[in-house]
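Complex 420.
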Amino acid sequence: MIRVLQTKTILLGVTGSIAAYKAATLASQLTQAGARVDVVMTREATQFIGALTFEALTHRYVATDVMALLPDSQIAHVAMAHRADLFLIAPATAHLLAKLAHGLADDAVSATALDTRAPLVIAPAMETGMWEHPATQANVATLVARGAVIVEPGIGQLASGASGRGRLADLDDIVDTVRAVLGRAGDLAQRKIVVTAGGTQEPLDPVRVLANRSSGKMGFALAAGARDRGARVTLIAGATSLRVPRGVEFVAAPTAREMRDAVLGAIGDADALVMAAAVADFRPAHTAEQKIKKEHAERLTLELVRNPDILQEVASRLPPADRRALLVIGFAAETQDLLAHARAKLKAKGLDLIVANPVPQSFGADIEAATLLTRDGAAMELSPLPKEELAEKVLDFVSAKLARHSLNENSTMARDTGSG
Ligand SMILES: Cc1cc2nc3c(=O)[nH]c(=O)nc-3n(C[C@H](O)[C@H](O)[C@H](O)COP(=O)(O)O)c2cc1C
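Predicted structure with flavin mononucleotide bound:
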């Protein structure tokens, strides 16, 4: 379940593109993530994929005709237009873009688009020639000027067999865009959140590294969750193979020293720093310039030196935790004495919150058990839950704390100015 999609009604418009079959996966993904999905289709779209497919996936009525009525005699496209929280048109044909730009309304999709006041997200798909045509580009510009969000088509193989720009965007990018647009005015709007993720890699030679088993899933879930609540997010990641969530600023920081520089560079105007990365404590004292050859030795002894302690450096550069604007959240991954180590780290680094999680079982897993410990001594033990949901709990803390900060600041200002 994705929190920003729960209780939301997403209207999915499907038009007559070869990519229409991909809309079935979108409908399924959005439904499984917790959204109610209403589908409207053009007549041409039904030549590519049947309405029955969408009815079966969403368990809801699908409108394919602008003249259709619901069983209770309401006009289908009007009722759907009015109850939508967001209108996603994917795939959108060149023809449909032209209709939208000019306000035509002679099919279920364009008529619904004209009547709804929900935000519009459009994912076009077409041959390169159609996409690049000045008429299509002018239509897209018109729609953008009216506030529509376009998920640009990608480059790849097209229906004609040719390769070029025009392919429907990656479905994960489309879902990310829907989430970001729905969350624009969320409880972290106007806030900047810096998140670190993944394990660092310390080079031994040009081809080998000292690494750890962190997958980056927790930090990526935090970054996506903060974006879904309207935050500006900088995601600083070590080694990870995960897809970068759309709508976040991404900084690659493979080594601890690069991560330190990236974090110190990003926190200047941030409201919160969430350090979910597994940063190597040590790195090889020397990095060989050429690949180390086994023929040169029977034994190899590595000399390691301490890496910078990023949280310690952050803490030393900022005022004490109770007087600073930046919230700092850390993670403690321990194989033994988890809570004792976590409490000690919380205190030593002046953190506002620490997420204590047992390793190695949580590395790479989708589900994680954790205990949240705060500076005032409170502890919240969470039974195993998906990393997305754990991320939301951490962000609930961030949101509540930042709201309290703002309240305190406002009341101090009101006192200082003698008002209120
Ligand atoms: C096999 C096939 C694939 C097509 N794929 C696309 C496409 O990807 N994008 C597009 O704009 N038009 C595509 N067309 C043309 C549209 O189906 C045509 O312009 C139609 O009028 C669009 O209707 P609609 O916008 O009302 O759904 C395709 C046509 C055929 C026969």
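The pocket of flavin mononucleotide is lined by residues 15-19, 42, 44-45, 93-96, 107, 125-126, 130, 159 (CB under 6 Å).
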